[in-house]
Specification:
- Helix content is 77%, strand content 3%.
- With 132 residues, the protein is mainly α.
- Strands 1-2 form a two-stranded antiparallel sheet.
Length: 132
């Protein structure tokens, strides 16, 4: 059962993050990170094999720490949002504290997105692969 939850979380994360980073907020992240990011031809150019590891880590964390504890889709949403706020907060607040030029706006937007994507993904998992 947990493999099914993990796979649903993995696909959900990838789709939602693609929509957010690749379509909706592409210009925002480029504007705020271009001075720090790997860039090629005016676009962000991450090391894709390394970047791709983020999704199984987040999907695994949601599966182990959220989906296994949530007793309802609404509880999964709430626990997922807290999980996302913590995970993205760790990343963003560390960067904000240690990197010159890390914008406060980026910290706030990205932490909010972490809560939204993790909450939504946990809800999707709870709806599609409930614990019986």
């Amino acid at each position: 059962m947990w493999w099914r939850q993990f796979l649903i979380a993995l696909v959900s994360f990838a789709v939602l993050d693609f929509l957010w980073l690749g379509l909706l907020m592409k210009a925002f992240y480029r504007r705020h990170l271009a001075h720090l990011a790997r860039m090629a031809d005016g676009a962000m150019d991450p090391v894709w094999p390394v970047a791709a590891l983020v999704y199984p880590l987040l999907a695994g964390g949601l599966t182990v720490f959220v989906a296994s504890r949530a007793r309802s889709p609404l509880e999964a949403l709430a626990l997922g949002a807290v999980f996302g706020l913590c995970m993205y907060g760790l990343y963003d607040l560390t960067n904000h504290a240690t990197l010159r030029g890390w914008p406060a706006t980026l910290t706030i937007v990205d932490m909010t997105w972490g809560a939204v994507i993790c909450g939504a993904t946990a809800w999707i998992v709870a709806m599609a692969a409930p614990i019986v």
